[in-house]
Structures are given as structure tokens and as C-alpha cells.
Amino acid sequence: MSLVRPDDDLRVGGEIDAYCTKCRLTTNHRIVAFDGDKIKKVICLTCQSQHVFRLAPAKKKENPDEPAAAKTARVPKEPKEPKPRTPRPPRESKLQAKKTPQDDIEASKRAWQERKETLGSGPLVPYTISGSFEAGQAIDHAHFGVGFILRVIQPNKIEVQFENTVKTLIMLEAQV
Ligand SMILES: [Zn+2]
User: Fold this and answer.
1) How far is the CA of 28 from the centre of ligand 1 (A)?
2) Nearest to 26 by CA among 60, 65, 58, 64
3) Does residue 158 form part of some domain?
4) What are the distances in angstroms from CA 100 to CA 88, 111, 165?
5) Cα 14 to ligand 1 centroid, rounded to whole Å
6) 113 and 166 inside one domain
7) Does residue 53 fall inside a structural domain?
8) Ligand 1: distance of its center to the CA of 16 in Å?
9) What domain range includes position 115?
10) How many separate domains does the chain show?
């Protein structure tokens, strides 16, 4: 390692730019000792510390950067993994399970049509306000048409399924 000697300042007591290990900067140094024609020791004029002459920072400096970069590259990966665990499917299945009113109407119609088919040409009991009915009976309503009594709510109150609707019909008080 030979140094260029641009001027007479390269002598003990002369000043030179060098890397200071304490300041971690290239600062102005005063030459303290030579080893032949090579500068050996310098004193930093900024921090007054005496150390071996160095033009540039040691290679050590690059090392701390590498693991740090590798770390930051790895860190975002780990939190990503647990994310898919968040339970979303239950919400969707809940929506699917929920019946729309349209579904209810369709189901009701199908049930009515099935009953109508099994009834065949069997007798229909005409609905009258003074009649008495029981669950399962098929009735013929003047306005709603053929209906099936789903249940007897009260002796004078029945729930009837017609083709497009379910109605609660009321009769006169049953005469005992
Ligand atoms: Zn220094």
C-alpha cells in the first residue's frame, strides 16, 4: 500500500482526511506516526481519538445491513399465514339457509298441488260459514277455490291452504 504524496503535509503533524472509527465518518486527522512512508497512526481532529490510519471504513459495515434486509423480507410473510383462518363460510351458509318469501310461496304451491293430485276427484266439502271442519279435509271455497285445512285453530277458526295463499277462515260459533 503506497500513498500518493501530493504535498508536504504528509509528515508527522500534517493533516489528512481519514476514516475515524469513533466518528464513523471521514474526518480531518493529524498524522502521528509513519511506518516507513506509510501513515501508521492518526489523531481525529473531531473527537481527538488516536487510531490506526484508515482511508475507508472497514468492510464490517456491510454485514449488519444484510441480516436486517433478510429479516424485514421474512417478517411480513409470517403474519400473512394466519389470515385465511378467519371464519367467513358460516356467514355465507347462513345467507343460503335463509328462505326468501318467494321460496315459501313456491313450496306452499307444490304442497297444495301434491295434495290436489292425491285428492283426485274425491268429494270436496263446500265451505260454508256455518259448517264445521277438521284438519286434513279438502274444502271448496267460493272465492279461493280448493283448499286443504292445515289445522283447526279454534272450533270456529281454521287455517286453510289454497293454491296461492294460506287463509284463516272463520265460521259461526259451532252449535252444540
Ligand atoms: Zn473521530
Assistant:
1) 8
2) 58
3) yes
4) 22, 17, 16
5) 16
6) yes
7) yes
8) 13
9) 102-170
10) 2
